[in-house]
Specification:
The structure is a homodimer. In chain A, strands 2-1-3-4 form a four-stranded mixed β-sheet, covered by helices on one side. In chain A, helix 4 packs antiparallel against helix 5 and helix 4 packs parallel to helix 6. The longest helix of chain A is centred in the middle third of the chain and has 27 residues. The model of chain A has no long low-confidence stretch (mean pLDDT about 95). Chain A is built from seven helices and four strands. Chain A starts with a strand and ends in an 8-residue tail after the last helix. The first copy, chain A, is globular. By secondary structure, the first copy, chain A, is α+β, with helices and mostly antiparallel strands. Chain A has two domains: about 80 residues, 3-Layer(aba) Sandwich (Glutaredoxin), CATH 3.40.30; about 120 residues, Glutathione S-transferase Yfyf (Class Pi), Chain A, domain 2, CATH 1.20.1050.10. Chains A and B meet through helix 3, helix 4 and helix 5 of A and helix 3, helix 4 and helix 5 of B. Chains A, B: One of its GO terms (molecular function) is transferase activity.
């Protein structure tokens, strides 16, 4: 089993953190986004959407889409469950993981893709080119501000994003926050005391270095 | 168990089709989007994102997010598996389901939300208001055109979206295509013979009426 990834790709980091939390031994194969290796014929044969990460199983089956990879690894390897144990628990975690993705992660990503000079003509991830729309950058920042408010409210009532335990939902929320800090210079402010408490707890886990 | 839904909501239809395919008996509770009932305190207590659908289990647990509801119902009720049987099969189906969502369904939805007069100030689903960006409408239509091309290529090599069998990925792709036909007046053209063959097959299943 091997994971095609890129070191600077926040989606790749979501999977790497999950792998680290579960203590899995999976070969990492770098894809050089700087030379647009993801658009090479060789990589498109692995993932026709031309995005990282992709997990390739020993039988050659390619699993794309970050949350799908995360869930697959958690289903396939029982140690350190990061989506809970029952179908109901898995659904609750997957719901919160997806909310963190849509409201947080995807909002930052949309802003970055529509702003970065290096992504001109590639405003939407995937194999097709689209021009940037500058208005989306400001809208994305407002979405991230709302994500912070909502995340703070959530973490004021429970210690972790999906409830009482650290789960895959914390991984996506952490990567989203780190991405917003780095790409949008949107730090966690003092008023968001619940996010700050949570962030100090999840970002010191060894997996956060992944 | 009951499903909060809206009859005109394409996301609700994804879940209703899955329920019909599996032959499940789940109470449907209508949410009136026309009077903005999804923003009521009562509904926000069920789903803080203020979106339909939401599945509420007998113990009161609320499961939001359409693909999460679909996967939960398939995990919880073994009859007529729509994501396959093994962890690997489920991952492959979930990957193709998500691709149909991101490249097809979400592209149509983005165009509609940024165009419809009735959605002014609500260009992004969820509890927060955002102004429409007209440029996104054209970009969304180009994304749907690319989705059609890619879907046709895929269906030229396999009979169903995820491979040899009808799965949850076909449900999302069918709802995306019907949504594009209705909202964008983008019919399946003659050149897309593989989509047409597939569409004629999946749209006559009784579940498609759901």
């Amino acid at each position: 089993m091997k994971l095609y990834h890129a070191s600077g790709s926040p989606n790749s980091r979501r999977v790497r953190i999950l792998i680290a939390e579960k203590g899995l031994d999976i070969e990492l194969v770098p894809v050089d986004l700087g030379t647009r290796e993801q658009f090479s014929d060789a990589y498109r044969a692995v993932n026709p959407r031309a995005v990282v990460p992709t997990l390739v199983l020993d039988d050659g089956t390619a699993i794309g889409e970050t949350p799908v990879i995360m869930r697959y690894l958690d289903d396939a390897f029982e140690q350190v469950p990061l989506f809970g144990m029952t179908a109901e628990e898995k659904a609750v975690v997957a719901m919160w993981e997806r909310r963190a993705e849509i409201e947080g992660f995807a909002a930052v990503m949309e802003g970055v893709r529509n702003a970065a000079a290096g992504l001109k003509g590639r405003a939407v991830s995937g194999p097709h080119g689209y021009e940037q729309i500058p208005e989306l950058v400001e809208r994305s920042k407002r979405r991230v501000a709302n994500f912070y408010d909502d995340l703070d409210a959530r973490l004021s009532s429970v210690p972790f994003v999906a409830g009482e335990h650290y789960t895959a939902a914390d991984i996506t929320a952490l990567v989203a926050v780190d991405f917003a800090i780095r790409a949008f210079a949107m730090p966690i402010v003092d008023q968001h005391a619940a996010i700050r408490r949570w962030y100090e707890r999840v970002s010191v886990r060894p997996s956060a270095m992944a």
